[in-house]
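Model it.
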Amino acid sequence: MKKIVLLLFFIGLFGFLIACSNKEMAEEIKTEEANDSAIYSVKEEKSSLEVVEEDKPVDDSEVISETSTERMIIHKAIIKANVKELAKAQNNIEQKVKKYGGYIVSSDVYQEDDLSSSGNMIVRIPEHYFETFLSEAEGEASKVIERNVTGQDVTEQFVDLTSRIKSKRVVEERLLTFMENAEKTEDLLKISSDLANVQEEIEVLVGKVNYLENQTSFSTIEIALYENRVIVPEIENKDLNTWEKTKKQFVTSTNVILTAGSGVIVFFIGNLPVLLILCVITFAVYWTIKRKRIEK
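Modeled.
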């Protein structure tokens, strides 16, 4: 009986020791897992301070379907034309711009001389009215000298910018999460600096996307108009004045004659002493020569 009780005592003691051992091992394992998770979180936080964007393959068709179902084309046109009346043509074109919901970027008029003048206009028209506006603008011309239409496909560029913004947004959210969990001041400052850089890059990319959307939503059209006029002079009676011109010419001729006669009188009377001396000298020479001939 004593042996049985002793055997049961040893068995219970052995079981108790095994249970205690298992408990200690469980606590050690739990402590090690907690330490590993803490080390992992610290490593993850440190890695976030040196953010390196991973290049993830982006399905272009998926991005296009989310942003736009059509190709993104930037249309530009240049029209040079002769018009009969420059002011009228410009006014009609301005009315058409308002009609289609566009706006005028610039409008200039140059008066080269009395016979020719020109004007330049740069307008922006909603993309879906591009062809319609071109046709109506050309209708204002008496002759179209030049028509140049170009289109630039920026769909791929738009998709690339959109995917980069999406990737930057993910990095931004990750940094915001790290900032909330950061405990050290130096880590918080580093994360704030990285976050500011990422947000600045996002703003630049968003600006480029907005520019592309604006350029594809509105087409740019440059219009040069030339007006050449032929001026026919009119006969005006006030420019004839036949009788007045006759009297003026008569008075002018009379004044010329009187001026000439006055000059002759002034010449002779004013130079009378000199003329008398010359006459005396001439007479003396003539008389001397004539006397010598008689003596011979």
